[in-house]
Design goal:
The chain is mostly beta strands and about 525 residues long. The protein is built from four helices and 33 strands. Helices cover about 5% and strands about 40% of the residues.
Length: about 525
């Protein structure tokens, strides 16, 4: 007889708090139960997280468990106007997150507007139920975030109204474990101890480079996928990415050591002291110990974690490519000069009916992407087909690409467009071997392309694939609808979700416009980004 899963109940009351997290600027951030940063959630694999969310903001919100598969329960994936309508102000919704298939390092964040950037984000750690793949003695947790000088929603409104493709120079501060990186508490360790250090970039748009001087790290997990231990000097961590590394402390506590965390944005000017930002933290063996000094070393002389050097423990072989879908990061200025992005011909804009509800209520029409409207950027997948995504980027900005409901194989990375003309190095060609690394978030390089593969073996998945920065809100996304006939057969949306839609005045049936068949009257104009 199988033991019943335990249910772990968590209550989040989401509201504003005036707070200065960087020590410089005070503004109404988004927290939970009066707390910022939001405390991490720990759960054991096989158990169920019951997350009861109260919306005390003045606008709708939704919550996404980043990296969780949500098998046959897309209605708990938490994507506003894709898998739900959102939680109205003054209302509740309970997300049930099952963890039978997964253990590892994840996080939960807002996925309706840009509340994620304003503080609505917290680590979600699923502990191994049995013996972990690699033995260790203790665990440590380190979160990396970028933090602006004003609410990110204000920046988004700026981007949608000012005729420019550039962000205003909002030089953000790096936060380490919720505090300005210049003042973060030390990482306290004991000598001769083996630690699992979980490192998460839960910020919006800045990557981090991370090193621990005097220590080697072994990568053992990336985005919930266990990895054959790989020794590295440092990590490049894009927004949305997570790593676990083994840290074996030294036999002596005669010295303390430092770690470096460098935050850099390739979308704003390089200004000394502002971009990049350099943070130094303590690896503390003994409070009264002196710090060990090391000579400066060039990044090029160090070994950095690279997906093409990683081998997943599950040793899944390279999938075939039954279907190839070519996407390209594109940008277009409207007649008012407002920038919009896309991953195909159209800039993603939410429909008038959440995509999942359209799938469930349109019968055989659900298999035709046309009924969702061009601005929904829907791609319908057949059950069990192997898909290859080819994504190109001809711009001088990298993009963290995140997929919902699954992980993808990382098959190839190479040059795309003319990097030399932009004064940038050419992206080298890299190809996976027999066992490609898998993860759910990958950086698309400047003037580069990536090839990704996955099997459409998640019947019932309505899943986004998008840039994990503010570019999502500017349209850089597509939505995969997988085996719509199976979604209709197996998924039953919670009544609470439908009630919230009605409170918001949102239709719960019909095509993207809430109509029958191919009648899309009422949809907002689609924005072409060819």
């Amino acid at each position: 007889m199988c033991a019943r899963a335990a249910v772990f109940h968590v209550y989040w009351d989401v509201g504003h708090q005036n707070i200065s997290r960087d020590g410089y600027s005070t503004w109404p951030a988004v927290g939970v139960n009066g707390q910022i940063p939001i405390p991490p959630i720990f759960i054991t694999q096989g158990d169920v997280l019951s997350l009861n969310v109260r919306n005390s903001l003045d606008k709708p919100i939704s919550l996404h468990a980043h990296g969780l598969f949500m098998r046959n329960s897309s209605y708990y994936d938490g994507v506003g106007m894709v898998t739900e309508c959102g939680i109205p102000p003054g209302s509740n919704f309970t997300y049930l997150v099952e963890t039978r298939e997964q253990a590892g390092t994840y996080f939960i964040h807002g996925h309706y507007g840009l509340e994620v950037a304003d503080g609505l984000r917290a680590p979600f750690i699923i502990l191994d139920k049995g013996k972990p793949a690699v033995d260790y003695d203790k665990e440590l947790l380190l979160t990396l975030e970028d933090w602006g000088q004003q609410p990110e929603s204000q920046l988004l409104e700026y981007l949608k109204t000012v005729p420019t493709t550039a962000l205003p120079n909002d030089f953000k501060t790096g936060l380490i474990n919720g505090t300005n990186g210049n003042f973060s508490a030390p990482i306290t360790v004991m000598r001769s101890t083996r630690y699992r250090l979980r490192i998460l970039n839960i910020g919006l748009d800045h990557p981090f480079k991370f090193r621990m001087l005097g220590h080697k790290m072994q990568v053992i997990e990336a985005d919930g996928v266990n990895v054959e231990p790989l020794e590295v000097d440092g990590l490049d961590i894009a927004p949305g990415q997570r790593y676990s590394v083994l840290l074996e402390t030294l036999d002596s506590d005669n010295f303390n050591y430092i770690y470096n965390a460098i935050m850099v944005g390739d979308f704003i000017p390089l200004v000394e002291g502002l971009n990049p930002r350099y943070y130094i933290g303590a690896i503390e063996y003994r409070k009264d110990a002196a710090f060990r000094k090391f000579p400066l070393v060039s990044d090029s002389d160090l070994v950095w974690a690279d997906e093409f050097n990683m081998v997943p423990l599950n040793r899944q072989e390279l999938l075939p490519a039954d279907r190839v879908i070519e996407l390209e990061k594109r940008i277009n200025l409207t007649e008012f000069g407002v920038p919009y992005y896309g991953l195909g011909n159209w800039s993603y804009t939410p429909a008038l009916v959440p995509t999942l509800l359209s799938v469930l209520t349109t019968g055989s029409f659900a298999s035709d992407s046309a009924i969702y409207g061009p601005q929904s950027s829907v791609i319908v997948l057949d059950y069990q087909e192997s898909v290859e995504l080819v994504i190109g980027n001809q711009m001088a900005k990298s993009h963290p690409l995140h997929i919902h409901s699954r992980v993808f194989q990382i098959v190839e990375r190479g040059p795309f467009g003319n990097a030399t003309a932009a004064g940038l190095p050419t992206v080298p060609l890299q190809q996976a071997g027999k066992y490609p690394m898998q993860r759910d978030t990958l950086m698309l390089p400047e003037f580069g392309y990536v090839k990704l593969r996955f099997k459409a073996d998640r019947p019932g998945a309505v899943s986004m694939f998008h840039c994990h920065t503010e570019h999502l809100d500017q349209g850089m996304a597509v939505v995969f609808v997988e085996a719509p006939e199976l979604i209709q057969k197996y998924q039953r949306v919670p009544q609470q979700l439908l009630d919230n839609c009605r409170k918001l005045g949102i239709e719960v049936s019909g095509n993207g416009a809430g109509n029958i068949g191919y009648n899309l009257t009422g949809l907002p104009p689609a924005i072409l980004v060819e």
